[in-house]
Amino acid sequence: MIFTCLRLAGLLLGGLVCLPAGLAHAAGCKASYTVPVALIGDVAQRASDNSIQGYVPDLVAELARRSGCELKIEEVPAARIRAMRLRGEVAILAYSTQRPSAPGYVFIPTERFAHDLLVNTAHAASPLTVQSVIADARMVFGRVRGMNYGPEIEALLAKLGSICVDESSSIDDLYRKLVAGRVDAAFQFPLVYRGKLAALGAEHRVAVLPFDGAAPQVGGWAFHTPPMDRDDAERLAAAVRMMRDDGTITRILARYIGDAAARRARYAGAGEKAGKS
Fold it and tell me: What would the pLDDT profile of 70-127 be if each residue is shown by its tens digit?
């Protein structure tokens, strides 16, 4: 089901109201837009009332409030989002990674996420280190189909080969395999794994090892014109930059990964260093 977040006069950040898309009208933009998002951890997830909640829905709601535009969240699997993007069918992406520059494409960096290595300790050798896990030929690494892990990790998984890499259709499927020992390790961000592993009671089965073998992956917002109207893209892009530079995005992220981790993930604005608040 698709939901629309409306801008209401005097509405505070934490009190956004989501209504069915048919009840809203675009105010600040010439058109309304759908923001596709994959359900992965606290990035986005289904709530008990079937609404989509999480970090990206919070960002989209705040962007709609600031811009006065009608923005709708829609659940779309990661692999399908990638295919739609290649066909030029996606107007806006949040929690996106940068692609090669192209006419009509604007990318606004907003976060820097460092990967951790998650390891099921049942099959891991001791002492447990990132190097020992990667070097252990018995270990099977899990990944999610369609998810972009960045060039260093993609190269590492390719080097391990298909026998040592298991591909899952969703993040939930991957974590079930990891906790059950059907895969031994996986690379992920805290925003993706933190809530999911806690819900699975995995704290005594899965170790979290900081991984410094890849640069932090820069995430942000992507706008494509077409299919988006150019004036609308400029309006929304300006609002995203303001949300990044005034710390709003960091504050929203802190709801899910805590203040310290959110500050480390902050993308540097003008005159700042990355990772500083």
Answer: 999 999 988 899 899 889 899 999 999 888 888 999 999 999 998 999 999 998 988 9
The helix/strand/coil state of 89 is coil
H or E segment at 140? Answer: none
Residue 149 CB coordination number (10 Å): 20
Length of the chain (residues):
277
Neighbours of 57 (CB within 10 A): 24
75 in Cβ contact with 38 (< 8 Å): yes
Helix (H) or strand (E) holding 3: strand 3-5
Q: For residues 167 and 46, what is the distance between their CA atoms, to the nearest angstrom? A: 23
Q: How many CB atoms lie within 10 A of CB 232?
A: 22
Q: Provide the b/e sequence for 24-40 (b: ≥16 CB within 10 Å).
A: bebeebeebbbbbbbbb
| CB 79, CB 175: distance < 8 Å | no
Distance CA 157, CA 14 (A): 40
d(CA 170, CA 151): 21
pTM here?
A: 0.74
Q: What is the pLDDT of residues 154-190, one digit of tens each?
A: 999 999 988 999 999 888 899 999 999 999 999 998 8
